[in-house]
């Protein structure tokens, strides 16, 4: 198999699903014998330690969104290094760097957005899509995202290549016998006989932690043996703001942890009876859902992004309308009182959403003209 020389350009390595997923891809590319180079366009790199040490890394610091000093450095590297492919998280920045470079390396743009953030963003995206070059490939992760972009930007469906996000199923496994759920729950202040609802998402407005807390208040009125555990990034101010919405009557049953406080996230998946996301926008194909399901945990998700693709007609959990607190609370109770086979959930991820499948499709796309 032909080995590739791959350049990856990222805006940052901040704590987030897209960044974690890209790190997993790069580590796997390297493990398979490919040469991987990473260029990061800011000093915001808390996830850097998760990157394989054999990946060549350069960290830049942009003075502005279009810092032409950095564009020139990336451009010179593309011009004089013999890369086979480029993967970039910043479409507009990369297109400027590629301008007038007549090389046939492939440029892959994984699209982590669906709805544009305002009219200016929409206009820039519209122009960007209209000036697509032959060696550029725009990658979507779900059918719903593809269909929306096709309709919104008046494109043919063939314009996009779809590759589902994937999770490392060798890392995110069913809880081993050596894991003591009781000991772990006691360590984080939870009664071991309780049921645990877990939400792993950055403390940002669109993730709607507030809806999760309000739905929990409805559930708590019916049963007291349940805890809601929220694990997010390190935005402490957002955590403090969220704490104000936790009613004094059930405050002890809502646990809030930053990523730094939480430590090894897989322990939380193993201890959880149910995983949930209550987002109202932005989500495409959340990695945390795939991680939870790979560990066998059933999910209740709001109907955003690829929720229905993953859950499949309520087979592996529930999909509910966004902002519908009654539906969220009721679905939590339904799942907690039902018996969903953990092995069945995991098998669904292994067969359809493993990192191995995603890596193979990316490499095929970089070697050939079509991933399908």
SSE class: alpha/beta
Q: What CATH architecture of the largest domain would you give?
A: 3-Layer(aba) Sandwich
Separation of the first and last Cα atoms: 18 Å
Tell me how many strands there are.
13
By CATH reckoning, the class of the largest domain would read Alpha Beta
The general outline is: globular
* Main sheet record: 7 strands, parallel
CATH superfamily of the largest domain: Glycogen Phosphorylase B
| pLDDT averaged residue by residue | 90
Strand order of the largest sheet: 3-2-1-4-5-6-7
The helix count comes to 15
Give the ordered list of helices and strands.
EHEEHEHEHEHEHEHEHEHHEHEHEHHH
Task: Give me the CATH fold name of the largest domain.
Answer: Rossmann fold
Q: List low-pLDDT spans.
A: none
Give the number of domains: 2
Task: Indicate the proportion of strand residues.
Answer: 15-25%
Residues in helix, %: 25-40%
Rg value: 21 Å
């Amino acid at each position: 198999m032909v080995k590739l020389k791959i350049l990856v350009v990222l805006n940052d390595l901040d704590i987030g699903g897209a960044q974690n997923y890209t790190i997993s891809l790069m580590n796997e590319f390297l493990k398979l014998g490919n040469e991987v180079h990473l260029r990061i366009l800011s000093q915001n790199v808390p996830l850097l330690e998760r990157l394989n040490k054999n990946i060549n890394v350069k960290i830049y610091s942009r003075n502005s969104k279009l810092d032409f000093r950095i564009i020139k450095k990336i451009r010179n590297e593309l011009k004089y290094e013999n890369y086979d492919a480029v993967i970039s998280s910043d479409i507009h920045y990369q297109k400027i760097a590629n301008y007038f470079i007549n090389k046939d390396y492939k440029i892959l743009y994984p699209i982590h957005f669906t709805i544009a953030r305002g009219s200016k963003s929409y206009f820039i995206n519209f122009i960007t899509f209209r000036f697509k070059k032959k060696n550029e490939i725009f990658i979507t992760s779900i059918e719903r995202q593809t269909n929306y972009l096709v309709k919104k930007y008046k494109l043919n469906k063939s314009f996009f290549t779809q590759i589902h996000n994937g999770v490392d199923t060798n890392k995110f496994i069913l809880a081993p016998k050596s894991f003591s759920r009781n000991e772990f729950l006691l360590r984080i202040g939870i009664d071991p006989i309780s049921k645990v609802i877990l939400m792993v998402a950055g403390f940002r407005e669109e993730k709607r932690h507030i809806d999760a807390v309000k739905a929990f208040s409805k559930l708590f009125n019916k049963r007291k043996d349940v805890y809601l555990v929220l694990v997010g990034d390190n935005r402490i101010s957002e955590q403090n703001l969220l704490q104000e919405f936790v009613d004094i009557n059930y405050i002890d049953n809502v646990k809030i942890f930053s990523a730094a406080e939480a430590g090894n996230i897989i322990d939380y998946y193993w201890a959880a009876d149910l995983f949930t996301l209550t987002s109202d926008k932005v989500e495409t194909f959340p990695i945390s859902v795939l991680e939870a399901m790979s560990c066998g945990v059933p999910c209740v998700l709001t109907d955003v992004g690829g929720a229905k693709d993953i859950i499949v007609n309520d087979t592996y959990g529930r999909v509910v309308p966004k902002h519908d607190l009654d539906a969220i609370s009721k679905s939590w109770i339904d799942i907690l009182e039902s018996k969903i086979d953990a092995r069945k959930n995991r098998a669904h991820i292994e067969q359809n959403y493993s990192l191995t499948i995603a890596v193979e499709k990316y490499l095929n796309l970089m070697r050939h003209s079509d991933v399908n």
